[in-house]
Structures are given as structure tokens and as C-alpha cells.
Amino acid sequence: MSSATVAIQQRSRTSVYAHAFGGMILRDARVIVREIFPFLTRTIMNPFLFTFVFTYVFPKIGQGFNIPQASSGPQISFATILVPGLVAVAMVFQGISAVALPLVNEFGRTREIEDRVMAPVPVAFVGIEKIVFGAIQAVLAAVIVFPFVIIIPSTPVSIHVSNWPLLVGMILLASLVSGALGLVIGTTFKPQQIPLIFSIIVIPVTFLGCVYYPWARLASIKWLQIFVLINPLVYMSEGLRSALTPELQHMPLLAFTLALVGALAILSYAGLRAFVKRVVN
Amino acid sequence: MPTRTATRKPRAPRKAKPPKDEPKDYVLRVERLVKVYPGPGNSPDIRAIDGIDLNVERGEIFGLLGPNGAGKTTTVGVCTTRVYPTSGHVQVDGVDVRKDPARVKLGIGVVTQFNTLDRLCTAWENLYFHCRYFEMSHREAKQRADELLQQFRLSERRKSFPDELSGGMAQRLQVARSIAHRPSVLFLDEPTAGLDPQSRIALWEIVSEMREHGITVVLTTHYMEEADQLCDRVAIIDHGKILVCDQPANLKKTLGAETVVHLHLEKPPDGLAGKLKRLSGVVSVDASSDGLRVLTKGGGIVLPKLVNAANKYGLTDVSVAEPTLETVFISLTGRELRE
Fold first, then answer.
1. Interface test mutation site (partner B, options A1, A3, A5, A101, max chain B beta carbons within 10 A)
2. Which residue among A20, A111, A113 sits closest to B133, beta carbon to beta carbon?
3. pLDDT band at residue A127 using 50, 70 and 90 as cut-offs
């Protein structure tokens, strides 16, 4: 009996799986460190320019948005509304660019996913690692974007974190949903369809994700208010809104938490199923 | 005029066969394996593998030889946990591929027909991270990666990215990576497809050396020279079935011929085949793309007779060679391997 055979029989399965999983995380981390400049650019550029134009330039040139509040409530600047929304967008965008785009190429053009697929773990673990690492990048994105959206605006930004566990929980949940969404997209599209990912998914999800307006405000366009509920970004924006700007109208805690947990379950299931199907036939 | 093309490298020493009564140590067992893919649209189902039985002994270099589409890659796909079998059983080192694929992957190495190197990692990192996936510590993985780069003469390219490596170097790196975790079986699927002749020979040497490391090699190829040169045993596979399986020399012996004579003709060989078959020393006659292929025995005496008879049919050239595995394939299927 060869040494490998003995090894197969003796090694504990948990240890084998944990090492393989850790190795993959390590590999992804190495790649990110090497590509730190593209990572920062793609993370910062959109929220930076958005905040700069809409909350710095517009007020300065007298073209601001003044959001009418209920007469009893405090005056809330557009910059304040944007903070949770832009943090949420940065996370979703990171999930897509960190998981979906590389995966489309790894499956289609280069097949370089092979080596990880042949690691001694069930194939679904490779997909789970993708979700987890996508989530790690999404958290980083949130942390990086946060100061930008607070410092840049020329109008006051009012942020009150009264419930830290809620904020941490929301960021974790939103980051995992972003990673899972990335996995679904990455296993669905072909390399030549990458431009489509932007026009079919990124743009509609962003514009209809309650990023630039709170969900409650859509009450005056009832059909849209109901339609956008299929968009997971809505719940991320609203969840962060309730954690960061609680004075602003937002969905009830139970609603966005359940929706995000549901979205995570559905997207993970669909993404992992598609991943395994792409790998084993 | 006659050209003998068979130039041969000395074979690496084969492993000693165990005595007949000793039970053989099979590292790969394939039993009644069937894989059916649904046909596209309304077309009938495709039986990619149609009942294959195989046993590969520990330490041998085993070849699956057959034309493209014969079912070689699908067979390797099942053995390497990438294709679900429709029916039948495959065991690698006693572990069933369907029941415990993760455990099977621990004991196998795989090189596919494609360059699957991690493009975002350097040559060294490709090896290092692979080792980390297989339970090695940072120190062990580092040491193993250095050692493999040296063994595969890639040390100078340790910082190169896969896209900066030549085809031959990339393939060497893939083989190095596939054995980094010291698997008991290495699957090489068309490992030399697309390589230049020099890189191909370099890779053959590497594969031969696997024997010294005690690694069993299962190799698929449609190059008969490759199977002939490298393999202890070869299974010839066509339309998802194994036609024969034996040592290359034994397979060639079954032809009962010593020489293959190719008669290149300008005119259609109507009736010629019948005439030739009656000549003494002629074992068989088959049509080839531009004339006839005649298997002969009994030395060179028969050659002038063949030339004489073929002259009337516009004989343009004659080539003479030893029978190869391709000849075996043609005699079994009536087709050329690369058709």
C-alpha cells in the first residue's frame, strides 16, 4: 500500500477540508494584495465620483436636491440619504467584480478554476469559498467607502449609530448576499457576455436599489415600490439606513433581515447548484 | 526507395511483474462503466462510454489509445470525479468515485488537455498554493514548490506568470503541480497535444520518470508513438468500447506480420487486393487513402512481388515500416487512428 493510500485513510476529513478551504482563501488574498491598485480603484471610483458630483459640486453650483421631510421630522440632506445606499452599492459591486467577473473567465476562457476544483473537498466548497472571499472583499469595500461618503459632501451628513450589533450584522449579511449574487452571475454568464452583466444587472440593480432614495418615498409610485422588492440591494440599503441614519424612514428591521436571509439562502443555493453543474457533468 | 521510419529510444526499465499466483495490486478498477449523454434536441442519446472494464496495476504506465471522440476523456473524467457515471463502478485506491469524490481527489493528480494554470499566480505560487490545498504547512509547501521547480527545470521561471511561459514549460509546470501532493495515480489527458516535438520528447521523459517515483500513470492519447514508447500496457478504445488491452509488443504480435508495406497508387486498385492476398508472405491487405496497405511476413522476399503486381496500377511510391499500434487499430476497426 502506498504512502498516499495510508494517508487517505488516516487523515481527518475536517482537517483536509479546512486546509483546502484555507489554502483557497490564502490564494485569493495573495491575488488581491498583488492587485491592490485595481481593487482600490474599482471600489472607490463610483462612490467617490457620485458623492463628489451630487453632494459637493451640486450644492456648490446651486443645483442641490432638497429632500422634503415630514413637517415634524428633522431636515435631512441628500448626502445623508446617500451614505447607506452608496456603501451598499459598493458592496454589491464588489461581490460582482470580485466573484462573478473572475469566475466567468475561469470557467470559460482559462479553465483555471480546475486546480481548485481538484482540491480534496466537495466541489460545492470551492463555490462557498468564492462566496466567503467575495464577502470579505465586500466588507473591505464598505470600510473603504465609508469615510469618502462622509467627508466629501459640502452639506452636513448626519450619521448616528445607536445599534452597533445591527450595523455589524447588516454589513456581514449584505456582504454575504453580495458574494452569493456574484456566484450566481459568475456561473450564469459566458465571457463574451460580460458587457451584458453591466447593462442587465449592475445598472438596474443600482438604480432601482433604493440607493438614492429611501424605499418609503416610493409610496407615491406604488407599482415601483412593489416591483423593486425583488432587488436584494433594496434590503441592503434599507438595512444600512436603519443602522446608520435611523432618523430617516426605513423598512422595519424584521422585513429587511428576513428578506436578506432569504436572498442569501436562495442565491447561495442557486449559485452553488449552478457551480457544481458547471464542474461535474 | 524503402524508408524505415521507426527510430526508437531505449525504453526505461519496466517494473518487475509479480509472480502469477500473487494477487495483483490494482490502483484503478473500472467495472462495466457506462456514460450516456442526452442527445441534442430530438437526436438519440450518445453512449460516450459503452461498458468499459479496466484494471490498472500500481506503478504501471497505462495508455488509453483511440481516435478523438472514442470516449477516452470521458473515461478519465469519471475516474477523476468530473463526470457522473450513468452506471458501473470506478474505484481509485479502493475508494468509489461516486461515493467519496473528495477522498478520491486526495490520491490523484490530473493534467487535462488545456492549460489550467492559475493565470494570476506565478509559477512558484501555482505549486505553493496547490500544496496548501493538500494539507501542507507553509514550510512544507514552500519546500515542495522549490524542489519541483528544480526537478522540472523551471527554477529560473519561478516568478513568471503562466502566460509568459512557452507551451512546453507550461505543460511541465502543470505536470509538476499535478504530482505536488504525491498522488498515487496521475491522469494525463492528451498531455502532448499541441506541443512541439522537442517538448513532447521532454514530457515523455518526465512521464517515464514517474515510474521511479512509484506513481501510476493513466495516459490518454491519439498518438500511437506515444502509447508505444511510454506505456506498459495499452487499451485501444473506439466508440466507447475497449477493443483490446495488452502490452504494446503483444498487441503488435497479434497481427502476425513483421512489415507494413504501403503501396501508393495512381489508379484505383480494383482486383489488386485479391491478387496480393494470394501471394505467399502476405498476411492481409487493406485500402488506404491513396492505395493499399499490405501486412507481410517472411522477410523482404515478398516486396519485389508486391511492387511487380502493383506497377500496373500506377505505383508511385512504396514505404515499408514495422507494424505499429496504429496498424493494430486499423486491423481492428478498418479506420485510421487520425481520421
1. A5
2. A20
3. very high
Q: Where are the beta strands (DSSP E) in chain B?
A: 26-37, 46-57, 61-65, 87-92, 95-96, 108-111, 185-189, 216-221, 233-238, 241-246, 259-265, 282-288, 291-296, 315-321
Q: What is the mean pLDDT of residues B159-164?
A: 94
- Residue B328 is predicted with a pLDDT of 86
Q: CB B106 to CB A8 under 8 A?
A: yes
Residue pLDDT, tens place only, A140-189: 989 988 888 888 888 778 887 878 899 999 999 999 999 999 999 999 98
Q: Is residue A4 part of a domain?
A: no
**Nearest chain A Cα distance for residue B90, angstroms:** 16
| Number of compact structural domains in chain A | 1
- Residues of A whose CB is below 8 A from B95: 8
Measured N-to-C along each axis, helices A164-188 and A232-244 cross at an angle, to the nearest 10 degrees, of 160
Q: Which amino acid is at A23?
A: G
Q: Does B107 touch chain A (CB under 8 A)?
A: yes
Tell me what ipTM this predicted complex has.
0.86
Interface touch B93/A8, C-beta < 8 Å: yes
Residue A2 lies in a domain: no
Residue of higher predicted confidence among B266 and A64: B266
Which domains, ranges and CATH numbers included, belong to chain B?
Answer: 26-252 (3.40.50.300), 256-322 (3.30.70.260)
Residues of A with CB under 8 A from a CB of B: 2-5, 7-8, 11, 13, 15-17, 19-20, 22-24, 26-27, 30-31, 34-35, 110-123, 279-281
Closest CA to A83 of A110, A55, A111: A55
> Does residue A1 fall inside a structural domain?
no
Residues spanned by the domain of A218: 10-279
Does A212 map to a domain?
Answer: yes
The tens digit of pLDDT for each residue in B101-158 reads: 999 999 999 998 888 999 999 999 999 999 999 999 999 999 999 999 999 999 999 9
**Region class of B199: left (phi > 0), else alpha (psi between -120 and 50), else beta:** alpha
Contact A23 B132 (CB under 8 A): yes
Indicate the average pLDDT of chain B: 86
